[in-house]
Inverse folding.
């Protein structure tokens, strides 16, 4: 269910509409940034065990959709959502994570959405040429 914003980006890359079955405010991380953090965690020396929050960028679904529409203007008004928040905390304190890891990869939501849509478009073009 939480992949719905990414599914909306895929639909937008195809020029199609999409309905996201939830809304509210959420925390967004780019998969590549999370993967880099996991690799960093695996390679760094650390004694004991730790539990950390990954904050990402906090945004309302309206903002996510606006950024999708900025990247693909032809889908303006075709990406919709139910304004019912999922039962998750709105944001997280990642200060302990930053204390241990120092810098944390965190691309902007705008760059993440635009890059994801560009990736989907490139993948579709490559598939058509194969």
């Amino acid at each position: 269910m939480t992949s719905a914003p990414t599914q909306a980006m895929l639909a937008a890359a195809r020029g199609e509409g999409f309905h996201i079955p939830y809304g509210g405010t959420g925390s967004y991380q780019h998969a590549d940034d999370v993967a880099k953090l996991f690799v960093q965690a695996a390679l760094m020396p650390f004694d004991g065990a730790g539990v950390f929050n990954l904050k990402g960028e906090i945004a309302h679904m309206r903002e996510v959709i606006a950024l999708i529409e900025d990247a693909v203007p032809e889908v303006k008004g075709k990406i919709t959502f139910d304004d019912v928040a999922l039962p998750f905390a709105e944001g997280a304190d990642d200060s302990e994570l930053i204390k241990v890891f120092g810098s944390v990869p965190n691309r902007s939501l705008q760059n993440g959405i635009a890059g994801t849509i560009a990736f989907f478009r490139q993948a579709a073009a490559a598939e058509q040429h194969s």
About this structure: The CA atoms of residues 98 and 104 lie 7 Å apart. The longest strand covers residues 25-28. The two ends are 31 Å apart (CA to CA). Helices lie at 4-13, 31-43, 61-71, 95-101, 109-129.
